[in-house]
Prior knowledge:
Layout: E1 7-8, E2 13-14, E3 19-20, E4 25-26, E5 31-32, E6 37-38, E7 43-44, E8 47-50, E9 55-56, E10 61-64, E11 77-80, E12 85-86, E13 91-93, E14 101-104, E15 109-110, E16 115-116, E17 121-122, E18 127-128, E19 133-134, E20 139-140, E21 145-146, E22 151-152, E23 157-158, E24 163-164, E25 169-170, E26 178-180, E27 186-189, H1 191-196, H2 201-215, H3 221-231, H4 235-245
Parallel strand pairs: 1-4, 2-5, 3-6, 4-7, 5-8, 6-9, 7-10, 8-11, 9-12, 10-13, 11-14, 12-15, 13-16, 14-17, 15-18, 16-19, 17-20, 18-21, 19-22, 20-23, 21-24, 22-25
Antiparallel strand pairs: 26-27
Helix pairs in contact: 2-3
Amino acid sequence: MIHPTAIIDSKAKIDSSVEVGPYCVIEGEVQIGPGCRLLHGAHITGWTTIGADCEIHPHAIVGHAPQDIKYHGERSYCRIGRRCIVREYASIHRGTIPDSATVVGDGCFLLAGSHIGHNCQVGNKVTLINNVLLAGHVIVEDLVTIGGATAVHQFVRIGELAMVGGLGRVSMDIPPFALTDPLGRVAGLNRIGLRRNEYPREELAALREAYRVLYDGRCGFRDAVEKLAAQASTTATKKLLRFIEGPTKRGIAGRSRARSDNGTA
Length: 265
């Protein structure tokens, strides 16, 4: 059902089951999959694809031009997965490099006022609490939660199932399964998230030991990584090691100065 006040470009391809509310604007070569709902005032533009069963709430902006002075209207993309919820005034910008893309995976929950900058790569089941700001080229892996009003620097990577504290700033890469303080430092292991996702006890024990090796401060970080490489044997610890040894433009976040409640850092 399309409200009569909605403005829809003739180039747009919208499944017949899509609900388009009052005063929505859909412009350009937009593609919207079945079962989606666009609430009043939503604005979808550019070369944007939205998967099935998404909800775009009032005054959200998806696929608009990147906030980059080097961008001059070249074709670039914004791709949203299935079953995503984009709440009020959230914004997702398309890529800035010609033929590049900003990508959001399946099942993401982007709360009011959150922003995903150009060329970000956001995984599945990611939650951005209100007013989270992702600068350009940020990588956020699956199952990450970022607390409200946190700003993430360009080119930062945030590993799987990390829990990033609210009212914070993140300027270096956050390893998988980490819990951070407001300065973007590692305060411990995201044990609650691991339990909710039904990680077995042996994985939890191995990760606790891995974080102890990396962040107990008894040796330099490079030496700690070498020590972890020699003992990582579970799926989760190998994933942690791959992330830390992977390419980085920002470096890996250090240990929080405050001891965490769970005593793992």
